[in-house]
């Protein structure tokens, strides 16, 4: 793959746990990126993202899975500490971060509970499934909230996000370590298809050139995966006979 051509990074979960974590990360990044709610479109996007986040949290025991992974990562670091020449200062810092994150996560209230119990969030969440259901006559409480002083709204948003911080901190740390566990390797897809083994992996990451405007359609689980590359322009786009890519199993 040419070093000068722009590339696109795709990630695909290989189990249900990772699928949930990637969705949570996607939603949390949106929430933390919308701290200043000063327009109707931004406000509705923020509340819709909160609703999606709460829906995901209600589908499984996210806290338990994250605590298990934090412990697993600590055990891996302990194994690394036996390797000659390893940076012990870095390992100790990472182990402390894992311990602190686990302590914070264990002591936190039920994930998302404060948001579920907030009256305004609850009112908006109930109306989001109705087309246009958040206009002023449907939700006068939201309408007046959008007219209070900006600093008051900002403070309330900061308070909401603070309740998510133990989750956000643990998830960010876990996904960072998972991603670093797999090195990218050069591979070649023939006629738009590639398959390989992924024994014990949680996450598949692939980087491809933007030149061909292709995207991957991935099917896989914890032992094997298959990738088919499709053109963004399904009428005129072409898939090259040989496609170079970088791939990592994490």
Can you give a write-up of this model?
The protein has helices at 16-32, 40-57, 62-80, 88-107, 113-117, 119-127, 140-145, 150-162, 165-180, and strands at residues 7-13, 185-190, 193-197, 203-209, 214-220, 224-231, 242-249. The chain has 250 residues and is of the alpha+beta class. A four-stranded antiparallel β-sheet has the order 1-4-7-2. A three-stranded antiparallel β-sheet has the order 3-6-5, with no helix packed on it. Helix 1 packs antiparallel against helix 2, helix 1 packs across helix 9 (165-180) and helix 3 packs across helix 9. The two termini are 21 Å apart.
Topology:
Layout (H helix, E strand, L loop, with lengths): L6 E7 L2 H17 L7 H18 L4 H19 L7 H20 L5 H5 L1 H9 L12 H6 L4 H13 L2 H16 L4 E6 L2 E5 L5 E7 L4 E7 L3 E8 L10 E8 L1
Antiparallel strand pairs: 1-4, 2-7, 3-6, 4-7, 5-6
Helix pairs in contact: 1-2, 1-9, 3-4, 3-9, 4-9
